[in-house]
Design a protein that fits this description.
Layout: H1 3-11, E1 21-29, E2 34-38, H2 51-61, E3 67-76, H3 89-96, E4 104-106, E5 111-113, H4 114-117
Parallel strand pairs: 3-4
Antiparallel strand pairs: 1-2, 1-3, 4-5
The structure holds tetrahydrodeoxyuridine.
Tetrahydrodeoxyuridine binds near residues 21, 23, 48 and 91.
Length: about 130
């Protein structure tokens, strides 16, 4: 199964009763292992966790610190995730914590680097 197919599989576990928008992510660590994430919503709305950050939390909690690529798919429940579902701004910054400029972000139709989706970004090196 390629990374996009794994993201589709991860999307099956999305918990999105409020938006009905189901997102799945498959994150490839430099170790070769793949970590899955799905969005997890909350009745209080703001605690909602995006699929991408769920995948990163799983990977980092397992001891991973270096990553090559992530595939992300999203669509309304019952629809095929064939259109691009770009990561939100918070997720882009979250990726930036662990990923270099050339980190690959694979969407349903297009593939980007992190630097393309988050140019002129703030990172830990800016803390001095
Ligand atoms: N969502 C993600 O999981 N990832 C994103 O980057 C964009 C948005 C989720 C959050 C919420 O559960 C639903 O999609 C609608 O915004």
């Amino acid at each position: 199964m390629n990374l996009l197919e794994q993201a589709k599989k991860a999307r099956e576990n999305a918990y999105a009763p409020y938006s009905s928008f189901q997102v799945g992510a498959a994150l490839l660590a430099k170790s070769g292992r793949i970590y899955l994430g799905a969005n997890v919503e909350s009745s209080a709305y703001s605690p909602t966790l995006c699929a991408e950050r769920a995948a990163f939390a799983a990977a980092v909690s397992a001891g991973e610190r270096e990553f090559s690529a992530i595939a992300i798919v999203g669509a309304k429940r019952g629809e095929e995730p064939n259109e691009d579902c770009p990561p939100c701004g918070v997720c882009r910054q979250f990726m930036r914590e662990f990923c270099a400029d050339d980190f690959t972000i694979r969407l349903a139709k297009h593939t980007y680097t992190l630097a393309e989706l988050l140019p002129v970004s703030f990172g830990k090196e800016n803390l001095g």
